[in-house]
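Please predict the structure of the following assembly.
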Amino acid sequence: QVQLVESGGGVVQPGRSLRLSCAASGFTFSDFDMVWVRQAPGKGLEWVALISSDGRNKYYTDSVKGRFTISRDNSKNTLHLEMNSLRAEDTAVYYCAKMYGKLTAYNWFDPWGQGTLVTVSS
Amino acid sequence: DIQMTQSPSSLSASVGDRVTITCRASQSISNYLNWYQQDPGKAPKLLIYAASSLQSGVPSRFSGSGSGTYFTLTISSLQPEDSATYYCQQSYISPITFGGGTKVEI
């Protein structure tokens, strides 16, 4: 069955960096676009970044542009999110998700990983 | 950016009730609208995609409708396991945006 397992979360000081990973299994990873979505404590869902199946196209929400980088290693079935210059407002549970479809057509996220908590605090 | 507004933000209903959640988009998104269910402490789960298509394995008491700027998620007969927060999401254009969520209590 399709499984997504995030790792790499933790407590980090403001201004520092953190790298999240998402290990995928149960499907042909290189065939699908992937996304990161975050959820601040007690808040709603916020899409963070998207990467195309071949890794060539990347999209970000404005608040993380220039600070976060999404990448993937199709040979290792792994998705990454490199987060630099972290701020308190980046504190959230970060989910990776498999995207059905393309940004230029119908698309939806299914399934989602269990999430990894990132806490930015001094 | 397209703003997604859900109402109500929370509701309380009884087992067997018919429940409807609405989602409005700030501009037309055709039927590029998805619904997710999130249990406390869990990852979101896809319920409905393309406004009205039921995801495999989701009970038939869930249904979605709408197009343009107005959408609804209906639970025809509320069950105890439906206590959760529900989110709409537009997939029409980047940035992909979510509604603020509707918490359903039994």
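Chain A has a mean pLDDT of 97. The interface with chain B takes residues 35, 37, 44-47, 50, 59, 61-62, 95, 100-101, 103, 106-115 of chain A (CB under 8 Å).
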